[in-house]
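Protocol check, entry for the methods section draft. Step 1: assemble the input record (protein sequence plus ligand SMILES). Step 2: submit for complex structure prediction. Step 3: store the structure tokens unaltered in the notebook. Ligand used here: flavin-adenine dinucleotide. Step 1 record:
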Amino acid sequence: MGEMEENYDVVVLGSGAAGLTAALAAAVQGARVAVFEKAELIGGTTALSGAGIWIPGNKIAARAGIEDSQEQGLKYLLSLSNGMILPELAEALVDGGPQLIDFLEAHTEIRLQLVPGYPDYHPEHPGGLAGGGRTLEPALVSFSGLEDWTARIAGDIQRIMLVEMPLGGAPEWSHLRFWPNAPPPTSKDSAGRWSAACSRHASPAASRWPPACAACG
Ligand SMILES: Cc1cc2nc3c(=O)[nH]c(=O)nc-3n(C[C@H](O)[C@H](O)[C@H](O)COP(=O)(O)OP(=O)(O)OC[C@H]3O[C@@H](n4cnc5c(N)ncnc54)[C@H](O)[C@@H]3O)c2cc1C
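Step 3, stored output:
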């Protein structure tokens, strides 16, 4: 039987965040799942995005001491909608966010983290948060563990400096994905100098910005 004639319990069209999350949800419940992607590379718009995920009342913000609730998040959404939103969809989004965090932690290596201080876009609205807490992002994911899949993922794998990013600007690399040809995460020493461990040269060297191995240049 040809591959296209096989039977699946669930067929997902598209390999962006929505498709892959749906595929994973079906697979962990025992379904035989196939994902079909019409583009040459997988990831869709998701692979090009900033990867910020808006989840009001999440446990990661709570751990950071931020006061928030799903009720406040829902109030905020409704305040923005001019009465045109379907309340049940807004409720599903707000209710499902914390469940998504738990689901990803249980079934993947993805760990979401706070984007510190990132405010709601309209914090002046009822339920809005000015000091951040609802926008999360994935922690670094090493492409080296993806082996053959690395070349099949959409997106620009050129090195970029965080200072070039419109929304970032924090002097840490923690908001960058770990592309295979990007430098490893960096750190500051007690003298405040940046350093980067190099995978090709035995002794980590550097102490300048942008951090780089002195031997590699
Ligand atoms: C530069 C940029 C930054 C962004 N930053 C953020 C952000 O920080 N936070 C945020 O929430 N949103 C952000 N967005 C928006 C966000 O990326 C999208 O809303 C989200 O990725 C959509 O996910 P998706 O899974 O629905 O679609 P996609 O990720 O686009 O995936 C759809 C996939 O389906 C495939 N497909 C379509 N039709 C078929 C078919 N018939 N058969 C098979 N495959 C098919 C497509 O080729 C594609 O791969 C950003 C967008 C851009 C462009």
